[in-house]
Amino acid sequence: MVNVGLIGLGTVGTGVARILTGRRDLLARRLGTELVLKRAADLDPERRQAAPLEAARLTANAQDILDDPDIDIVVELIGGTTTARDLILEAVSRDRHVVTANKALLAHHGNEILAAAAQQGVEVAFEAAVCGGVPLILALRQGLAANRIQEMFGILNGTCNYILTRMSQDGMSYAQALAEAQARGYAEADPTLDVEGIDTAHKLAILVSLAYCAPLSLDPISVSGISNLDPLDLQFAREFGYAVKLLAITRNDGETIEARVHPTLIPRDHMLANVNGAFNAVYLTGDAVGPILLYGQGAGMMPTASAVVSDILDLARNLIRGVRRRVPPLGCDGALESPRNIKPLDEVVTNYYFRFAALDRPGVLSQISGILGKHDISIAAVIQKGREVKGAVPIVMITHEAKEANAKQALMEIDRLPIVSPPAVFYRIEDPHLHAAQI
Ligand code: HSE
Fold this sequence. Notes:
The chain has helices at 11-22, 24-31, 45-50, 62-67, 83-93, 103-120, 136-143, 158-170, 174-183, 192-195, 198-212, 231-239, 301-321, 364-374, 404-415, and strands spanning 2-7, 35-41, 58-59, 73-76, 97-100, 124-125, 149-155, 222-223, 242-252, 257-267, 279-286, 290-297, 349-359, 379-384, 392-399, 402-403, 420-429. By secondary structure, the chain is of the alpha/beta class. L-homoserine is lined by residues 132, 157-159, 186-188, 194, 199, 298-299.
């Protein structure tokens, strides 16, 4: 028998409790022994009351779980980076294996927690931390271990993807779509983490670390979110044949590493453009395997609980066999090495979408394109919409590849022209038809 203690009966915790209590036979058959949810803790009496567990197994005090000598595996699902950190470090120091879905905690304190676990010789598993129910961590730690990962493009936040899908397919406002995503239980307790791209960055930090055998770090990642996206730009992007997705991007060209999170235009015929709603996907290229697509539900009660329980089973199997840390948490038994050459965002070369609000006068386009030309930015396509109120019209451009620093400098100069109303809008494009790198 393997005993589990669960801390946190929120959306995911309740899903985990449902699986552990409702599928005992299936899990026992898979494991060859019984997997018991011995105790579950939550401060909130209503949550405890709603939990699918008899009252005697429920407690308001997480310490009861750490103090229970029969509990082998502690599952942390309270989120946040303070109490969760303390609880996990205590569980580790008391020789418990730990399962967590807490990407923020791993991104901020992962090195400390994994070092403590290594020293104690216990496991910390986090399959649910990235892409919910999709077994992506397992794929990177084991299935793809033979590869140098060359690039990864991830839709890693269900809330943002849900919002973008509802805005672009159903014409919903940003606020309506966000409220719906929250009601469905996709969003973090503080949705700022979702919509500002921070949750995606936490997840990208974990992926970068797994991909490149590097310590966990948010430092190399530049982040912008979707909260300022104007539906007008979703519409123009569509006219140019693009969908807009919040992408986590990392690329390793052998010399430098890019790591960034931002709304990105991708061709509408790309597989990632068809990942809709709360679904997540990662499209990555390994130098041996070539391209791989992993797709599934990245948020919500049961998909995330599915990943948490997969970790519990995995650790339970190790316990039964008397094996510890056969596969290290970041898939690397050698020394972890921080990437030395992180490419600053200003050095990144990509294609751009620009939108200017300009006066509808002769010579306007030539002034704008003159400044772009001066900064080595060549235009691939332009749309100018018909005359609008007070003569200001949107001019939308797609560029060939340009350096980010040049694009920003050019936009600053264009914003100073008396014929435009600043600020210009700009988004990055990842389009294999426009540049050589494949996505
Ligand atoms: N808030 C996250 C999302 C939950 O929307 O994807 C899963 O990490």
